Amino acid sequence: MGERGQRIGIMGGTFDPIHNGHLVAASEVADRFGLDEVVFVPTGQPWQKGRQAVTPAEDRYLMTVIATASNPRFTVSRVDIDRPGPTYTVDTLRDLRAVYGPDAELFFITGADAVEKMLSWKDAERMFELARFVGVTRPGFELSSAHLPEDAVSLVEIPAMAISSTACRARVVAGKPVWYLVPDGVVQYIAKRGLYAG
Ligand SMILES: Nc1ncnc2c1ncn2[C@@H]1O[C@H](COP(=O)(O)OP(=O)(O)OP(=O)(O)O)[C@@H](O)[C@H]1O
Ligand SMILES: O=C(O)c1ccc[n+]([C@@H]2O[C@H](COP(=O)([O-])O)[C@@H](O)[C@H]2O)c1
Q: Is 55 inside any structural domain?
């Protein structure tokens, strides 16, 4: 306390599994905004994902820890997986504000697909008051903030990573490699736990 407020990025996601697109997004925004830390926050129950079951939270959490362990500025928070019920970003931001204190500046990072849907998120108006939002480019999606409150979201172009968790899961089901799409330790964790094998 007493120091200048820390600049904290928040990278929320289902991370089923975490892939290099997530890591590049966090790294680029950290560089662009001079962030001190990026906290990766695996979701508890992602209520807007169109499928019934996601992989157990502990597996998604551990993959996120493995993927981020080598970067001194990346950390992982359990706030969303430890909170019962559907995951809402408005709650994530309240919880992380309590952790980092009133002086911290919070930057919530999302890809272009998430930016499209943001107005449908719970208490969106309140949510925009609790953090700055940063939307990053993603192949296959238009990045625009025209539908959002003015100045709520900053847009950032990042190197195009045509990777999705859906495609990674489908590759594992089909017996294809996910090397170099996800970090090495995550490839090994998926194999060790037999995730996505069908
Ligand atoms: N390749 C990518 N480039 C930029 N942003 C991405 C990329 N993949 C995911 N994101 C962003 O990361 C956040 C978390 O994404 P999520 O965990 O849902 O991954 P996903 O690949 O979109 O998953 P799925 O294919 O299962 O829907 C979202 O804000 C999403 O827009
Ligand atoms: O707050 C909401 O209502 C809300 C609705 C959909 C997604 N989110 C958050 O957006 C982030 C990316 O979500 P997803 O579903 O693309 O993995 C993650 O942190 C989610 O908790 C939040």
A: yes
